């Protein structure tokens, strides 16, 4: 695919130096740039550049923020890490000063960015094939926050342990939000859920109730994500009515608790969760969704992550009534031969869970058709291709 008519080759952090297209680009001496650096260069063209970071929730929160800016007719340029129905894809080119994008910490990609507004949703251990430990990760998020100029703003989750370490020494304005830390600038009270698990809450701003909001997405974690976006909306003077209009129309990004359909009377939901905290949030939210038995078909993502969080994965998955495991999705890694979904199955059995480890999607699909009954809820879960299971069941 690489010809001498190409002016620039942009590659992602997941692409290795022995990739044949990378090799060919070097042979032809075509200029090359990592994707994060390219996005950073684009960001310099916008006086309002909003970068949304965190271990979890980036895609959903970027999507909520995008819906709010679209509802406010601010004509933003948007780059989101999933398919967003409102823009018909994952990219929207606007014609205003506003640029909204996800900011991923993997390989310190977000340190190439030039945000005027930064957001930090949470900080936890992940990508341990790159980072040394949690302290190393926190240091990277601190460096990200330091990239915000003096006239800019950081919106940070005050529920992050010792979040003040991240904001220490910053010259920019800092706005906090949180569900647990009631001293945060933005927090929520009177949280309730409807029959589908979607939240409703009172927004409390600096101790005063400032609005009542209804969500069209499930779970407590999305109340938190929405608080971050309320802080963002207030920064740009977007009124509550516009925000609520946006929240009403946002039913989730692609692969985030996405309703796929029904088969033989059971419901199929697909979710991108691939970290124990995300799994816990999704399965907790599912408890409020109508079901008889909650089944989770999980595909672990990468060998390093499965090994690093083996017991945490088992603990989080135990929130499901019954678990089906697929083989590990290798992504950018090669099989080291010392970790498999069988290890995760054994950890779940120790917790007394019913677990079924099946090697192929065909076996999993046949098992599901034989064992799930009318009223059950199936969540296909993982960052790999496990979404295909639900789609195959619905299409065949």
Strand content: 25-35%
Secondary structure: number of strands? 18
Overall mean pLDDT = 95
Please tally the helical runs, counting DSSP H or I stretches of 4 or more residues. 13
- Structural class by helix and strand composition: alpha/beta
Instruction: Write out the strand line-up for the largest beta sheet, numbering strands in chain order.
Output: 5-4-6-3-7-8-9
> What is the CA–CA distance across the termini?
35 Å
Task: Characterise the protein shown here.
- 44% of the residues are buried.
- Helices cover 33% and strands 26% of the residues.
- The model has no long low-confidence stretch (mean pLDDT 95).
- The protein is globular and about 60 Å long.
- Helix 8 packs parallel to helix 10, helix 10 crosses helix 11 and helix 12 crosses helix 13.
- The strands form four sheets. The chain has a seven-stranded mixed β-sheet, with helices on both faces. It has a six-stranded mixed β-sheet with strand order 13-14-18-15-16-17, sandwiched between helices.
- The chain has 396 residues and is α/β, with parallel strands linked by helices.
Features:
396 residues, alpha/beta, seven-stranded mixed beta sheet, six-stranded mixed beta sheet, 33% helix
Topology:
Layout: E1 9-11, H1 20-27, E2 32-34, H2 35-43, E3 48-53, H3 58-71, E4 77-84, E5 89-92, E6 98-103, E7 117-120, H4 134-146, E8 153-157, H5 164-167, E9 173-177, E10 186-193, E11 198-205, E12 208-218, H6 220-235, H7 240-249, E13 258-263, E14 266-271, H8 276-286, E15 294-298, H9 303-308, H10 310-317, E16 322-325, H11 341-350, E17 354-357, H12 361-371, E18 377-381, H13 387-395
Helix pairs in contact: 3-6, 3-7, 8-10, 10-11, 12-13
């Amino acid at each position: 695919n690489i010809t001498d008519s190409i002016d620039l080759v942009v590659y992602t952090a997941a692409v290795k130096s022995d990739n044949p297209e990378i090799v060919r680009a070097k042979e032809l001496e075509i200029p090359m740039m990592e994707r994060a650096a390219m996005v950073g260069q684009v960001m310099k063209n916008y006086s309002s550049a909003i970068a949304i970071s965190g271990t979890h929730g980036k895609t959903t929160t970027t999507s909520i923020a995008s819906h709010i800016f679209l509802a406010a007719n601010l004509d933003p340029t948007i780059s989101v890490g999933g398919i967003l129905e409102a823009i018909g894809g994952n990219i929207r080119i606007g014609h205003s000063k506003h640029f909204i994008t996800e900011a991923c910490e993997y390989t310190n990609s977000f340190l190439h960015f030039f945000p005027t507004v930064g957001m930090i949703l949470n900080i936890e251990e992940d990508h341990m094939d790159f980072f040394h430990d949690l302290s190393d990760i926190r240091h990277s998020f601190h460096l990200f926050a330091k990239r915000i100029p003096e006239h800019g703003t950081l919106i940070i989750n005050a529920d992050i342990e010792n979040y003040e370490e991240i904001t220490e020494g910053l010259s920019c304005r800092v706005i906090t939000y949180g569900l647990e830390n009631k001293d945060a600038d933005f927090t929520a009270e009177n949280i309730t859920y409807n029959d589908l698990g979607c939240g409703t809450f009172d927004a409390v701003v600096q101790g005063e109730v400032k609005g009542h909001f209804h969500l069209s997405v499930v779970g407590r974690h999305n109340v938190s994500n929405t608080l971050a976006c309320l802080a963002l909306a207030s920064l740009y003077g977007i009124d509550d009515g516009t925000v609520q209009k946006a929240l009403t129309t946002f039913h989730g990004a692609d692969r985030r608790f996405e309703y796929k359909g029904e088969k033989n009377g059971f419901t199929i939901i697909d979710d991108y969760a691939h970290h124990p905290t995300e799994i816990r949030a999704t399965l907790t939210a599912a408890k409020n969704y109508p079901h008889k038995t909650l089944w989770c078909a999980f595909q672990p993502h990468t060998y390093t992550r499965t090994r690093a969080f083996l017991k945490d994965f088992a603990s989080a998955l135990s929130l499901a009534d019954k678990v089906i495991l697929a083989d590990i999705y290798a992504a950018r890694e090669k099989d080291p031969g010392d970790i498999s979904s069988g290890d995760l199955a054994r950890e779940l059995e120790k917790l007394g869970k019913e677990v079924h480890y099946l090697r192929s999607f065909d076996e999993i699909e046949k098992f599901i058709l034989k064992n799930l009954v009318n009223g059950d809820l199936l969540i296909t879960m993982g960052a790999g291709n496990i979404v295909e299971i639900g789609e195959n069941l619905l299409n065949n």
